[in-house]
Specification:
Order of helices and strands: EEHE
Helix content: 10-25%
Distance between the termini: 56 Å
Strand content: 25-35%
Shape: elongated
Number of helices: 1
Radius of gyration: 16 Å
Length: about 70
């Protein structure tokens, strides 16, 4: 696994949107800086993988219901 990139995967969510980010990093220093930035945003859950670039498919199912005023 020599010189294979690191991939940092994290999610940011608000009332309006949800963003999933998969960001590649070539060295550990850049990865550490990115993790520090996540901590300043109070994002504490993330995944780090190291390896070859892979393809991904996202499948999402959403069930919508009527909004009931309370």
């Amino acid at each position: 696994m020599a010189n294979e990139p690191f991939y940092l995967i994290y999610q940011e969510a608000s009332d309006e949107e949800c963003l999933l980010t998969i960001q590649p990093y070539k060295d550990k220093q850049a990865l550490a800086e990115a993790i520090n930035q996540l901590q300043t945003k109070q994002i504490e859950e993330y995944t780090i993988i190291q390896g070859k670039k892979m393809k991904a498919a996202l499948r999402l199912a959403v069930e919508l219901t009527d909004w009931e005023d309370e």
